[in-house]
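Title: [Solved] MLH1 3D structure

Original question kept below for reference.
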Amino acid sequence: TNATSSKLDAIKSVYGITVVRDLLDIAVSDDNPTRSVFKMEGFISNANYIAKKTTMVLFINDRLVECTALKRAIEVVYAATLPKAAKPFIYMSLNLPSEHVDVNIHPTKKEVSLLNQETIVSSIQEAVESKLTNCNTTRTFNTQVLHASVPTFASSSLEITLNDSPSGSNSQKVPVHKMVRTDSRDPVGRLHVYLQDKSQSQTDKRPDLSSVRNAVRQRRNPKESSDLTSIHELLNEIDYDAHSGLLEIVKDCSYVGMADDVFALIQHATQLYLVNVVNLSKELMYQQVLRRFAHFNAIQLSDPAPLPELIMMALKEGDQDCDANIGDDLRQKIAEMNTGLLKQKAELLEEYFCVHIDQLGN
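Solution (posted by the thread starter after getting help):
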């Protein structure tokens, strides 16, 4: 390529004008020494670009290399935006201190690893996701005008072939999967029901990737909390007793795998930790119940579950755990007594825990 040409001109010369037409410029940087120090600029394909194989041209400090972690992270973002078989085009130029680049992880020095790689990859991934989400409004699709009265064919070459065929010759029967729809009244593959024009208001309501994620986060972590003083006191105790170091580890850890039935391995930064999953789960559930108190999301069962049967199941399972054997009559009495107690507390259970119990004990 010409040494004086721009990066876009160079990409156009090597990969063609069809690639350049669907590129978006992207840039992200970070100058926080405690987190990461880097600067990236480049071009990524938009939602209109479709290819069968990912093309990633990555320069780190002006040297052509590969970074598998970065490539996979970007492919994850595109997987949520592009059709299933489509792959993106990516050009990135990354600059960071030379001592932050490890070139000795591959014999040919083609693959590199970076200091604070997770942070850098995450920053670039978020920038790519933001860029793609904002460009969704300009996505285009190839359409075909359908005329119900006049037969039309999907391709002009097919039309020429059919028109040039001799009138007296016996035409071969076309397989069903190769038929071309020419009339909306044709019973083979009527599509007009799917081609109705939608109003602008319906189109505007279509959620993008970020709005869907925000909705999921809000459902998992509701902002409202109970107005009971006792609940706020318990929450204050949790916040006061929280260990900042443990909080940071749990918040930003990566799950590695189970070490045995109780302990799990997690990684935070460059450290490995053993975590008691049972204790952690109990603490998590306790805190979630307090934070969602009186604001739980209800789950409606298709068939209401009878309380006596549920209590009987719990009693039988408890007997197996402690090697005890309570008679069926005693279990039945315990189940009836507890069912009556829960029915008396039905209003409280519904208000605070969103558990609805009817008069029949379901």
